[in-house]
């Protein structure tokens, strides 16, 4: 009856827990969580699931097919699921994050791929099984079916020790040293459960009543499984909280870097802006200076003609094309030398030279409205 209760409780709790872990795995996968963490969640879920399936198989064999609890098939199935559980726990251990040195078992696992680990584990299992079968065939008369658990003992102890080591390092790394006691308790419960499996009932009867011995087995079987689930759940959520904290810290650090970069860019822009303003200021000052210089030059280069020179230019504009300089000088009642002196001065002021000087003077007089100063009229 007690074994049936243990199997039902184990099956219900472990399968429900495995389903919840599978949902967590899918959720974290959609969030693009790191591959190592996802693998850890997957293997942890399979370890719990193997316990649940093992309990369902026991229910099927004992309650439905009416197998005896010491039947070799029933015991062998128990060993098989225990080994599967050990394998899945081993595969989940590398995902337990901490800053300490990895356990030797974990270092070995990390050197191989998942496929290679399965092959190595299977090879070790085959060797142990071969030694057991050989030993069992030799001592068939004295061996009990519970001795089949000897195949599982070394692996279970190695896994339990590696689990204890990694859990303690992980909890210490996360400031949760108070979890040392539950992890040690888990190791002791696994150790008691292993011992309970291999000690025959007739030997246990010499120490205590079989009812107490059976009660110890039930308590340890349930306790270490539930404690295992509890510890890994705490570890999972502490990892999740730690990951979120690290993500927030990373985001904060990134924001600080962005802020510092923006501050530097602002300083550079302010310097550049100041430099540009200074350049603009200098350009404005240079432009004002050039304008002043231009005005000064324009003023200094402004053409100033006397009234007589305007009269000479005006007369050239009116009759210059028909009359010679001599004729124009007579018409103006001045000497030819005086007229030519005026022409020479006008050319000098207007910067006119060459053989076409007379024509240029006429064009200048017309273009600058100097004809009004003329004293000679066209002959009809």
Overview of the structural elements:
By secondary structure, this protein is mainly alpha-helical. It folds into 2 domains: 236 residues, Up-down Bundle (Rhopdopsin 7-helix transmembrane proteins); 67 residues, Orthogonal Bundle (Arc Repressor Mutant, subunit A), CATH 1.10.10. 77% of the residues lie in helices and 0% in strands. Helix 2 runs antiparallel to helix 3 and helix 7 runs antiparallel to helix 9. The N and C termini lie far apart (154 Å).
SSE layout and pairing:
Layout: H1 2-30, H2 35-64, H3 72-92, H4 104-110, H5 114-138, H6 153-173, H7 180-198, H8 201-204, H9 210-300, H10 307-319, H11 325-331, H12 336-350, H13 357-367
Strand content: under 5%
Share of helical residues:
over 70%
The whole-angstrom Rg is: 55 Å
The count of β-strands is 0
> Which consecutive residue ranges, at least 5 long each, have pLDDT under 50?
none
Largest sheet: none
Total of domains: 2
What is the top-level CATH class of the largest domain?
Answer: Mainly Alpha
Strand and helix order = HHHHHHHHHHHHH
The CATH topology of the largest domain, please? Rhopdopsin 7-helix transmembrane proteins
Distance between the termini: 154 Å
Mean pLDDT: 76
What would you call the structural class? mainly alpha
> What CATH architecture label of the largest domain applies?
Up-down Bundle
Q: How many individual helices?
A: 13
Global outline: rod-shaped
